[in-house]
Fold each of these.
Amino acid sequence: MEILEIILIGILIGITPGPVLTMAFSQTLIHNRREGILLLVASVFSDFPIAAASILILSTLSYSEIILIVISFVGAVFIIYLGIRNIFPKKRNPEDNAQSAKPYSLRKGGIANLLNPAVYIFWMTVGGKGFLDMWNKGVVYGLLFLASFYVFNLGSAVAVIFLADRFRGLLASKGYIWTLRILGIGLIYFAGKMVYDAVLMIAK
């Protein structure tokens, strides 16, 4: 996996209106921008143990070429799913997630991320395999993978929150929707590359 792919995936996951980002929108609209950003930061910190456990499990299985092929195919399906979901985005109302007057942003962000199955699927397939590929090139490459992913993932999500605070109709805007669609097409392209690499491993 190349750095450009890591950055693209980080950005796409960051701006996709899934459970965490939608809750961050809700915190921003109901409370303030700070609460929305706190929720995002909490979700990133809760991501670390999931990523570490997934990478540890994958590292023990990575010696099996069959396992790598299966992971590549499953990861490609997951990435295609993300791509299609962004080409045809669903309309969401951030205020639907409002449940109380108190923000509890850190708690909400951590719990939402820990209970999101997509996070586990990502790190057990695309994220974990991508990290190990880079780690095998050298420690610096592995650290660069993590830094690139989290910086662009959190950075893009925070940027969306800033825009949402400034322009309250952002989720329904054509510019936002078309950005999702273009990135979704890019993800499907990278999923195709993953399938191609898996086929090459089978053909050996």
Note: The chain has a mean pLDDT of 81.
Amino acid sequence: MAATIETPLVSIGLPVYNEERFIDATLASLRQQDYPYIEILVSDNASTDRTVEICKRHAAEDIRIRIKVQTSNSGVTPNFENALAMANGRYFMWAAGHDLWTPNFVSECVALLERQPGACLAFGSSRWITGDGEPLPIESGWTDTRGMSAVARAFTIFWGNMHPVVGMIRTADLRACLPLHQLAGGDLVLLMQLALRGHFVHATRAEWCRREFRMEKSHSEKLKRYAGASTRIVRSPLGKLFPMLELPAALVKVLMKSNLPASDKVLALATLAPSLPLRYLVGKRGQA
């Protein structure tokens, strides 16, 4: 079966690094999607474990899987871009090499985006699991921005969690946001860009299982990982000293470069400035 206008191809980008513990289950979950018109695009960031070996085994069994192995670890953000560069589909979603999805995740998101031409992103509900797959007593909210103005969408996303970034996105809208911002909070910057382009819709019957296996006890531990050699989300010397310092400027730039009317830009910037410190504190406490 081939993808058609009525049944569009979905590209699933799988940027991975040393995911041998979970990648087998992740690929099995993606292969079990009830929507057949998918391509699974593995971009390996020079793993030093058995990740590539496991991916190649799955690729030998499923022609929908393509693998590209990087010669060196370029960091998380460039590898996310590498996976997107491989995409041929009308829709795109990133998938972490340790997460799981209900079999209807792709089909539910495709159906919503096909019915909602003003939407640029669809995402499912979040369910947290441990490294062993056991449920965690954590609840995450969701946001459906249909009916909101562009400014309202942007600030609704600003105060929400970052889970929609692993939802399904119109490939053209996502590529219009390139290059990705390589900084702490880069996912928020991308979601703000997308929110200014279209609505986010919630696929209520689909679930994404977020695996929490690092068990970082503090916000500072997470930021330390962002600057680590294997992730390199934070790269500038100033960013390593003050990881969140680059985020406000990036958000301001997004608003200024948007197609918002001048009056809306003034309103948005005036609202953003006093909101940033509180948003940082809320995020630090793990509430958003």
Note: The longest strand covers residues 199-211.
